[in-house]
Amino acid sequence: MSVKAKWDIFCAVVDNFGDIGVTWRLARQLVAEHGQPVRLWVDDLETFARLCPAASAHDQQQTIDGVEVRHWSKTWPGAEPADVVIEAFACNLPQAYINAMAASGRRVLWLNLEYLSAEDWIIGCHALPSLQANGLQKYFFFPGFEADTGGLIRESDLMQRRARFQADPLQQAEFLAALGVERQPEARLLSLFAYENPAVAGWLDALAGDTRLNQLLVPEGRVLGDVAAWLGMPSVQAGDHYQRGSLQISIVPFMTQDEYDLLLWSCDFNAVRGEESFIRAQWAGRPLVWHIYPQEDDAHWDKLNAFLDLYVHGLPPAAEQALRGFWRAWNAGEGAGDAWSVLLSEYPALLGRAEGWTHEQVANGDLAGKLVFFYADWLRAVHG
């Protein structure tokens, strides 16, 4: 039984759609599945409106899917602090809001929702308190891939919806038709959503030279420049279709979160980036490659390898080597064509592992549920 509390979630949009994508899913799930009143504070309403077409980029206050969405502007409008306050991805709460928490005389649970990582130290740091100078206590909450972490965002009916969709060719065909795409018999269907990446050219070469037809769906995003360069075009845009050898490329419009799930579920292989699409591709139960956000000190390689160390568990050695090889080439920006050929030879084992991984993650619990349970446990401890 959920303990009802008021929630404030703060999101600063710093990495395209990743931060707002995660927080918007979380806010919706807290309302829909746990009956929690939620305010989502967003500093970039234009980006939010692209992700959620029902939203206005101009309204300072609006309610969508039961979530109160507020514009978090430089001029703080003032608001009574909620019972649970989530500072998403170290976005730094307004000082006036922190002062109001300290002066409220109430026990407020302050959570720093961290970025996703599979590194070993996450388990030891998850749910640790941090006493602040003003007497408030902040807790670090880490999403993750193991039971002793905060888990991943997953709606309660997600796996059932995915299973129904993937078992229904007609529903898949209708979805693709809405994108202007018709899946060809025996064709391999792939999606590409990545940061700018020089590895893309070698991969497209391999797809074009394949003996099997490949249909590649590319949603609008940062990787379009690489696709255009490979095609020898000055630019590409949604609605464009191209064919080179055995490769058909369809540029598809930017999608809502629910539409993007359907895209991932439709494909045999998904290239994804960042955190939001990375999580959703895992729930698709299909082999994938992750373009991790590069960091100047190369710390992203530690994060990438930490995830692979968990994900490859139980794979035959050849399949593990093939997967590591392609992910390494993809993120290094070279050698993706040769590595892709090796990966394809291990596809059946990788497909089985992708589905098995989803069951393991379901068993770990989901982020929204773990947040609600954490608050209930904290509340019991506070009141003895």
TrEMBL record:
Q: Which GO terms describe its molecular function?
A: translation elongation factor activity
- Tell me the superkingdom of the source: Bacteria
User: Which chain positions lie within coiled-coil regions?
Assistant: none
Task: State the InterPro entries in the record.
Answer: EarP (IPR016633)
Pfam families cross-referenced by the UniProt entry: EarP
Keywords from the UniProt entry:
Elongation factor, Glycosyltransferase, Protein biosynthesis, Transferase
Catalytic activity reported: dTDP-beta-L-rhamnose + L-arginyl-[protein] = N(omega)-(alpha-L-rhamnosyl)-L-arginyl-[protein] + dTDP + H(+)
Q: Which NCBIfam families match?
A: efp_Arg_rhamno
Per the entry, what this protein does is: Protein-arginine rhamnosyltransferase that catalyzes the transfer of a single rhamnose to elongation factor P (EF-P) on 'Lys-32', a modification required for EF-P-dependent rescue of polyproline stalled ribosomes.
Q: Which family does it belong to?
A: Belongs to the glycosyltransferase 104 family.
The molecule here is called Protein-arginine rhamnosyltransferase
